[in-house]
């Protein structure tokens, strides 16, 4: 036997060395917590010093099924042993399965797989522009997006992200983008003209501070789009995939987008996103219009397929509905009892507590207390836990949070 096979080739670093090397070698685009995460199990994460954390961030709404899910891991391992990548010049079965599952879950007709959310937005924007071009024979399409939105960091996605701070240094943005006020139908109507090809917004604004769309707004925009022949793009990269208690949040409003973007929990950790569209709209894209080397590769699609399968098998949506009702009650109690907690907003297991102070200190304290949370906007604590949490996990989260105020 080859004894050397078991020998570690890698130099083992301690926690401090990992942090120092990261700060030396990685481009400094994040202020990170001084914690090195090492492994996960269920809804818990462990750092390199063995400290345990209850995870109410799920890697930013990604790890819906919890960590170390055996069936999910086994499906990935099996696909790795079979075939990881092909190229989009060939068919592969996992992509067909994932597309079938995603169209069934969303009511969309066709799918294009990407590697991230921002790429899903790029694709959605290109599809809307191409659809307009086919219809009007002109390439002067405009898009209406929302203030305080977040759609990603690549240039197209950044251009529809209503946050001056993110855009400031990177101009000029792609032209023809206008910003309306979220949940203010009149502000959208004011911006519409005969060049408007699409209106894009998040069904629940995530990074902007956890703001669900009002029923009047989403219905009003849908009606406006129908009247004017404008495409409705709903970004469900964060709020989709069961997070709000339905597979996609728009399904609770009784409206349907023309183009839908999905990512984050779609692969539950394996980088995969998608934009999906109705048949009518999707056919505007033809060979040569859009492409990707990795997008829709067998490994990523095996993950997505397994995610859809496990959502059904583990009754994830039922769990979200049940546990989120309980979670909302507990969060509402905090609004009643803690001075600096102003308001709760959210749907399902996508919740936000707005504070009258910067949430930074509370979130840091929560980390000390073994609870992982993220912020949203400037003054909101965001809760986007794995969708498999129990009421006991909620109790533990609330206890740790209370201690952190
Ligand atoms: C995270 C996010 C994106 C960008 O996704 P990435 O995978 O980070 O590129 C886009 N839209 C929304 C609503 C998001 O939450």
UniProtKB/TrEMBL annotation:
PROSITE patterns linked to this entry: AA_TRANSFER_CLASS_3 (PS00600)
Keywords tagged on the record: Amino-acid biosynthesis, Aminotransferase, Arginine biosynthesis, Cytoplasm, Pyridoxal phosphate, Transferase
Pfam families: Aminotran_3 (PF00202)
UniProt source species: Lachnospira eligens (strain ATCC 27750 / DSM 3376 / VPI C15-48 / C15-B4) (Eubacterium eligens)
Gene this protein is translated from: argD
Cofactor binding description: Binds 1 pyridoxal phosphate per subunit.
Protein family (similarity comment): Belongs to the class-III pyridoxal-phosphate-dependent aminotransferase family. ArgD subfamily.
GO-annotated cellular components: cytoplasm
Single GO term (MF): N2-acetyl-L-ornithine:2-oxoglutarate 5-aminotransferase activity
EC number(s) reported in the record: 2.6.1.11
Biological-process GO terms, alphabetical: L-arginine biosynthetic process
Name of the top EC class for this enzyme: transferase
Positions of N(2)-acetyl-L-ornithine binding: 153, 292
Statement: the UniProt record of this protein carries the keyword Hydrolase: no
Cell compartments where the protein resides: Cytoplasm
Subunit structure: Homodimer.
Protein name: Acetylornithine aminotransferase
List of residues binding pyridoxal 5'-phosphate: 117-118, 150, 235-238, 293
Residues the record lists as N6-(pyridoxal phosphate)lysine modifications: 264
Pathway: Amino-acid biosynthesis; L-arginine biosynthesis; N(2)-acetyl-L-ornithine from L-glutamate: step 4/4
InterPro entries for this protein: AcOrn/SuccOrn_fam (IPR004636), Aminotrans_3 (IPR005814), Aminotrans_3_PPA_site (IPR049704), Class-III_PLP-dep_AT (IPR050103), PyrdxlP-dep_Trfase (IPR015424), PyrdxlP-dep_Trfase_major (IPR015421), PyrdxlP-dep_Trfase_small (IPR015422)
Catalytic activity: N(2)-acetyl-L-ornithine + 2-oxoglutarate = N-acetyl-L-glutamate 5-semialdehyde + L-glutamate
Required cofactor(s): pyridoxal 5'-phosphate
Further comment found in the protein's record: May also have succinyldiaminopimelate aminotransferase activity, thus carrying out the corresponding step in lysine biosynthesis.
């Amino acid at each position: 036997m080859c004894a050397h096979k078991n020998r570690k080739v890698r130099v083992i670093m301690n926690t401090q060395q990992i942090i120092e090397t990261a700060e030396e070698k990685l481009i400094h685009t994040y202020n990170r917590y001084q914690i090195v995460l090492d492994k996960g199990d269920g809804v818990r994460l462990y750092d390199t010093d063995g400290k345990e954390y209850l995870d109410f961030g799920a890697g930013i709404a990604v790890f819906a099924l919890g960590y170390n899910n055996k069936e999910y891991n086994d499906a990935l391992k099996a696909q790795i042993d079979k075939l990881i990548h092909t190229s989009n010049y060939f068919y592969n079965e996992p992509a067909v399965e994932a597309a079938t599952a995603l169209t069934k879950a969303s009511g969309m007709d066709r799918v294009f797989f990407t590697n991230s959310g921002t790429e899903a937005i790029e694709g959605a924007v290109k599809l809307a522009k191409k659809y307009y071009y086919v219809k009007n024979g002109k390439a002067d399409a405009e898009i209406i997006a929302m203030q305080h939105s977040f759609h990603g960091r690549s240039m197209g996605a950044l251009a529809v992200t209503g946050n001056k701070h993110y855009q400031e240094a990177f101009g000029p943005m792609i032209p023809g983008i206008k910003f309306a006020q979220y949940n203010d139908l009149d502000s959208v109507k004011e911006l519409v003209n005969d060049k408007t090809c699409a209106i894009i917004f998040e069904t629940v604004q995530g990074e902007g501070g956890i703001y669900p769309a009002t029923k009047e707004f989403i219905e009003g925009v849908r009606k406006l789009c129908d009247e004017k022949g404008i495409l409705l793009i709903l970004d469900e990269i964060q709020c989709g995939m069961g997070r709000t208690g339905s597979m996609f949040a728009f399904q609770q409003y009784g409206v349907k987008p023309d183009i839908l973007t999905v990512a984050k929990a779609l692969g539950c950790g394996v980088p995969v996103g998608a934009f999906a569209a109705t048949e009518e709209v999707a056919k505007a894209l033809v060979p040569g219009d859009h492409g990707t080397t990795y997008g829709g590769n067998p490994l990523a699609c095996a993950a997505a397929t397994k995610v859809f399968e496990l959502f059904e098998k583990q009754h994830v949506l039922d769990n979200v509905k049940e546990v989120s009702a309980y979670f909302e009650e507990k969060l509402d109690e905090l609004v009643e009892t803690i001075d600096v907690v102003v308001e709760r907003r959210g749907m399902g297991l996508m919740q936000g507590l707005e504070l009258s102070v910067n949430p930074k200190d509370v979130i840091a304290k929560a980390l000390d207390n073994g609870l992982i949370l993220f912020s949203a906007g400037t003054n909101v604590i965001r809760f986007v836990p794995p969708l498999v949490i129990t009421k006991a996990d909620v109790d533990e989260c609330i206890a740790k949070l209370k201690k952190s105020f």
